[in-house]
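DM from R.C. (forwarded with permission)

"hey, sorry to bug you on a friday — could you get me a structure for this? deadline for the figure draft is monday and I only need the backbone to look sensible"
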Amino acid sequence: MTKRCKSLILHRFYPLSPMWFKNLVLLRITAPFDLTAEVLEERLQNRRFQPCGALEPASEGWYPPLGHPDAPLIHQTQGFLMLCLRREDKILPSSVVNERLASRVDEIEARKSRKLRKKEREGLREEILHDMIPKAFSQSRRTFAYIDPKGGWLFVDSSSARKAEDIVAALRQTLDGFPVRPIATQERPASVMTRWLAGGSLPEGVTLESECELKSPEEDGGIVRARRHDLEVPEILHHLEAGKEAIKLAFSWNDRLSLVLDEALTIRRLKFLDTIQEAAADAGSEDAATRFDVDFALMSLELNAFLPILLDWFGGEPPAKAS
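My reply, with the result:
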């Protein structure tokens, strides 16, 4: 059986559950994290998610990773602590609000035979919002993350720095502080990836795929994006010789992971390949909670093995500054 056929069978009969991270922002926890799962659970309960009230435009809080409202807010596996931040927003399209505001303004100005002042318009807008919010539809989103207390890392399932900061801000409010910083390495990731793309020696197990993004180093420099493109063609090399750097690069690692890495070491379009899917299928279970636990264990252990290798490609982390 070919690898492609085997992959299709795995995807059809054992699709990876939504819990598997598809993107990854890595944040270094800068102080020992010594809270147990039980204590963390207790702290998170104080900011448990509650749906928007009738007059609330938004609501945010911690939600069970398993998805059942009565489940714990922390899911612990192999020492890793999974959590989930849920946010609900009332949907009030600005075009609808503006249309209703314009209609009310026209009506009042015609009745009073004068133009409304700015403060009057603002007050009228607030009245309209107050009337519309209780009737508005709402949408919610969940952002998953897990803490590695032993390694000192926070893994956030997002490609957005803003969403990662939302998780950090919520943890800081919940725990009265949560010291983290962005991942840092001794060598610039853009410089290293540029060397790879220019024909330099690739790390063991790395295979370049068919996507990259190149940028001129000067401010407002030009950007070249290549997708589904042979990266060994001369025009790619010409861009590099002209001074552009690789700020995004797609590659696979040891036939286990496929990803797009950017200059901030944010991982996008993370895929767990056949070897890991086979392990997940072999350990599969009809019980959703058991399957979640197995999938989380496989994913976290795989990322835990990959992270030090990733850092080593870029010279490792800078030495800690003496206090």
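R.C.: lifesaver. The first strand starts at residue 25 and ends at 29.
me: no worries. The chain has a mean pLDDT of 88.
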